[in-house]
Amino acid sequence: MTCATDFLPDDIQALKALVTAQRGEIEHLKLMIAKLRRMQFGRRSEQLDGMLDQLQLTLEELQVSQAALASPPPAQSRPRTPVRRKPLPEHLPREIHVHRPDAQCPGCGGELRHLGDDVAEVLEYVPARFKVIRHVRPKLACRCCDGIVQVPAPSRPISRGLAGPGLLAHVLVSKYVDHLPLYRQSEIYAREGVSLERSTMADWIGEASRLLQPLVSRLRQHIMAANKVHADDTPIAVLAPGQGKTKTGRLWTYVRDERPAGSSTPPAVWFAYSPDRKGEHPRAHLRGFAGTLQADGYAGFAQLYASGTIHEAACWAHARRKFFDLHKALASPIAAEALQRIGALYAIEAEIRGQPPDQRRAVRQRRASPLLAHMHIWLNHTLTQLPPKSALSGAIHYALARWQALTRYCADGRIEIDNNAAERALRAVALGRKNFLFAGSDAGGERAAAIYSLVGSAKLNALNPQAYLTHVLERIADYPINQLDDLLPWNIALPTLEHEAA
């Protein structure tokens, strides 16, 4: 009969090595369990979403109850206390209602003279409304030659289409900015007494995206002309034709934003769709680009770096996230120290954000480079103290394997410490994905990429996406192709758009 101890090695050193390896495996399993629990009960979980919604409702009810309790009965009076509110936006239209007393004093009948005014503003909401614009083109006949004269028909975004540019822009923004699927929009419009079928609006989106495609191409050219581009991708479910099932496509984002380095070059974002995540897609997207690509550790980018024309800048936010997960799951002191060291690097970046590249480089060389050198020594030394297969070893290996790319930002003031610019651009996709469930086809993914590019670039340039798209759709059908750059977000004045949106 054998027992468990029969399989243990006799050598003490071998026994210690086995114990160390098992400890590493236990730590790894604990981390995996913690990650799975966060996936099950974390932010993406419907269960937690429901709990958060319930807590929000509870908070609202408590606030309403407190307000009701604080309000005295009508018969009582309370001393007036000054109310400090944020002033209402100046750009909103004002209606002036003057509440004038009678011309004579109610007490003695004497004549009243003006002393001044008490002014109070109330914020009101006027529900969105539809209107019909009827274009009438009189036909005139010449008495001399019997010729007929008539003004040409006004241009429409969609030839012979029912939707005006404002309505088209509203449907696009509702879907891709406010994340309202078309069937929900149809229900909302029905409450206004307007019947718009989902299929009709789908046709509008298809026609609008085709019309806007040349402008999207201009965005891509602007981004690829930069010397540094942020890149990232995210999955999107796509309906597989004829199967009734979904497949996983990808939306790629490429961002040009040089404002943190003190540049006035306009920021922009370009999205591209692909049916899978093969490396050939980013290689095609970035064809002709030369400079620094700031991205995560996706292996599909490796061939781009091998060419020598594109240099890799890694993302400290990704490296930090691995230590953060370990610290949250295991309360690891080593992970905590790594987070503290990375936090010191970010504190330097906060101080120099918006300064010119040469100044940023000088500060980084003087302050961040020594911190990085010490961190490199500490990471290598710590690695010798850990089991090879532990989760902490994996996090350290991730950083050390990309050390040159992670520290490249110190030698170039144009580069950022992380890839958060691209991650921010993908947030709209994540919210939309939650509501849309899936794209209808590969063509639907390409349409989504086009609209996300335009509305994302509008927001980066502080434009109202609805006003921007309205402005563009009013003009683009007949706009000279060689002057199309006039319709890029940074070439349009914001006050004009605010007026048009109103």
Task: Give a written overview of the molecule.
Residues 453-490 form the Transposase IS66 C-terminal domain. Residues 28-95 form the Transposase TnpC homeodomain domain. This is IS66 family transposase. InterPro entries: IS66_C, Transposase-related, Transposase_IS66_central, Transposase_TnpC_homeodom, Znf_dom_IS66. This protein has a domain at 225-433. It is 49% helix and 8% strand. The protein has 17 helices and seven strands. It has a five-stranded mixed beta sheet with strand order 5-4-3-6-7. The longest helix has 30 residues, at 12-41. The chain starts with 11 loop residues before the first helix and ends with a helix.
Task: Jot down its keywords.
single chain; 502 residues; alpha/beta; five-stranded mixed beta sheet; two-stranded antiparallel ribbon; 49% helix; globular; disordered N terminus; disordered C terminus; Transposase-related; Transposase_IS66_central; IS66 family transposase; Transposase_TnpC_homeodom
- The percentage of residues in β strands lies in 5-15%
Structural class: alpha/beta
The H/E string reads HHEEHHHEEEHEHEHHHHHHHHHH
Going across the major beta sheet, what is the strand order?
5-4-3-6-7
Give the helix tally. Answer: 17
The biggest beta sheet reads:
5 strands, mixed
Mean pLDDT: 84
Rg result: 31 Å
* Helical residue percent band: 40-55%
Q: Which overall shape is indicated by the principal axes computed on the Cα atoms? A: globular
Q: How far is the first residue's CA from the last residue's CA?
A: 88 Å
Protein name: IS66 family transposase
Organism: Stutzerimonas stutzeri
InterPro entries: IS66_C (IPR039552), Transposase-related (IPR052344), Transposase_IS66_central (IPR004291), Transposase_TnpC_homeodom (IPR024463), Znf_dom_IS66 (IPR024474)
